[in-house]
Every structure is written in C-alpha cells, then in structure tokens.
Design a protein that fits this description.
The strands form 2 sheets. Strands 1-2-9-4-7-11-10 form a 7-stranded antiparallel sheet. Helix content is about 45%, strand content about 25%. It starts with a helix and ends with a helix. With about 325 residues, the chain is an alpha+beta fold. This is HTH araC/xylS-type domain-containing protein. It holds the Pfam family HTH_18.
Length: about 325
C-alpha cells in the first residue's frame, strides 16, 4: 500500500497543494514539506489508512485529535507519531498568528520492518501519559524532537533546488536518519551487550542521554545526572564513552550546538540561540560554536539568511 497517495488526494481537496512539497522516493516511503502562513485558524478533517507517520514541527502550533479521544497539543519543536493498523479519522487544528512549517513522513509497516525498526511499534505501544492518545490499536504520541532531528528536517526543506535524483536520495537518507534518532528516544536502548553493563545500566545511560538531548538547556552536572538516573558517577561516565561514544559533557555540548544551529537557521539572533540552549556566557558560546562550525554564530546566521534569499526561501 502506498502510504502517501491517499494524503495527496486529501491535500488536493483542502486546496493547499501549492503549499506542500511532496517527495515519494519509494512507493512505501513518502515525505511532505508543508510551509504555509497561518493568518487565520484552520481546521481540517482527516482520514488515514494503516501507516506509520512522523510529523515534525519546525514552526506553528495547534492540536491533533483522533475521533473518540481528547485533542493532543503540539508546538514548534514537537514531533507527533501516529501508528495505526486500521483506517482512522480525526481532526487537525492549526493556530493563527505564525507560519506552519512541518515535515511529515509516512511509511508502511513493512518498510519499518525492512529498516530493522520492527521493535519501534511495540516500544510505542508501551508509552503512556498525558502526551499519548489511544483509540483501539491506533496511537498518537507527542514528544520533543531531539536537536539532530530538527536540523535534519531543516536540511530536507533546503533540498528543493537540488536535481531530482540527488534530492530524492538525500530526502530518504535524512528521513532514515530521523528515524534512527527517533528510535533512540522511544526505545531508550543505547546499544547491545557491553562487558560490565547489564540491561538496567544500559537503560539508565539511555535515560541520561535522553535527558541531555531533550533538556539540554538545563544546568546539568555529572553529580546531578548521576543522581537523577540512579547510576554512580564513574559508571555513568564510563558507560557514556562506551555506549554513546563520547563523555556526557561532550554529548551535552553537541546537543546544545545542534539546537543552536537549528534556531539560527530559523532566524534567531546569536544571543537568543545561546540563551535558549543553555549558554549564559556569549563569549564562551561563540568560541565553542566557532570551533565546531568554523565561524561565529552571527556570521553563520548571516550566511544562512543570504542563502535563503538567493533561493527565494524565507530565512
């Protein structure tokens, strides 16, 4: 079953086809880049066929609702996951006053399994809380997107001028990478067997990684992180190096810089980006940003804005 063709018809009926860029790299893998001004509140009735979808919001806010369940709110920086084995209907409500920019990815269940992500669906089924909505076997979940997911979504939006074959291959590659980051958030499993680390240890390290990724603006220290996840400091630091590939402070710095990059690409000033991701010392932020990107944050933002103007896109 082609998961995107049904949505194509829905987009056409809503009269927003010119605001949605579509990519179908393969029949069971579709991407939609939605970019529309929201001068007024808009509500869409939606019907979907069995599929797995990811809606990653770069700008905008609103609610999604599966018929028979309360609305689920979202805002910029959120990712909504939908999983259903049966046809389903609902309502999408988008708030006025800001632009709506969303990357929507739709995959068949068979494609997920062939990507080695068969465990993702059972992991989603175990999620519970205020950010989950269930109706039978249908599930809608809202999570905060990790900084790399937001950067990859921005990269997909920026591919519009690339040659067709190159664009489709990059869309698929970035989309699969987003799935990899999503699997890390949902399954909370950083890797396989490592001597000296049992399943509980690995899950605690995965929890620590999740906290640093999702709450990178907080003032994390090794003692605080160790106490929060219930793992002694030495095992936490050693486990991060072996299972994540870097020490906790390096992972936190990377998460902050990726988030700052995404904010600068969306038009934030260097000061706004620094404060939003947890840096209060602008000189320190500028120094580590320059070490990573080869230029200071203000120049990075100016280049991004210039590139956007040249391509006719908002920067």
């Amino acid at each position: 079953m082609v998961p995107g063709r049904f949505i194509d018809d829905h987009i056409a009926r809503q009269g927003i086809a010119e605001l949605v860029r579509r990519e179908h790299p393969e029949d069971d893998f579709a991407l939609y880049m939605i970019d529309m001004p929201m001068a007024a509140t808009r509500t869409f009735r939606a019907r979907g066929r069995p599929a797995f979808s990811i809606s990653l919001f770069l700008e905008g806010s609103g609610t999604f609702r599966i018929d028979g369940t309360p609305p689920l709110a979202f805002s910029a920086g959120d990712v909504l996951l939908f999983h259903g084995d049966q046809p389903v209907a609902g309502e999408n409500h988008y708030h006025a006053g800001s632009r709506l920019r969303c990357l929507d990815m739709r995959l068949s269940h068979d494609r997920l399994r062939r990507l080695g992500l068969g465990d993702l669906q059972p992991a989603l089924a175990e999620l519970d809380g205020e950010q989950c909505r269930r109706e039978g076997d249908t599930l809608l979940v809202a999570l905060r997107a990790s900084p790399p997911m937001l950067v990859l979504a921005e990269a997909i939006f920026a591919l519009s001028t690339r040659p067709v074959v190159e664009r489709r291959l990059l869309c698929m590659a970035h989309g699969i990478e987003i799935l990899a980051h999503l699997a890390g958030i949902v399954t909370m499993d950083p890797g396989g067997d490592v001597p000296g680390f049992n399943t509980g240890d690995r899950r605690r390290i995965a929890h620590a990684r999740h906290l640093l990724s999702q709450h990178h603006a907080d003032d994390w220290t090794i003692p605080l992180l160790s106490q929060t996840v219930g793992l002694n400091q030495q095992k936490l630091k050693t486990g991060f190096r072996q299972l994540v590939g870097m020490p906790p402070h390096a992972f936190l710095r990377r998460a902050r810089l990726l988030a700052a990059e995404g904010l600068l690409m969306q038009g934030a000033t260097a000061t706004e980006a620094a404060m939003a991701v947890g840096y209060t010392n602008m000189s320190h932020f500028a120094r580590i940003f320059r070490e990573c990107y080869g230029c200071n944050p203000s120049l990075f933002r100016a280049r991004r804005h210039k590139d956007a103007e040249a391509s006719g896109k908002p920067g």
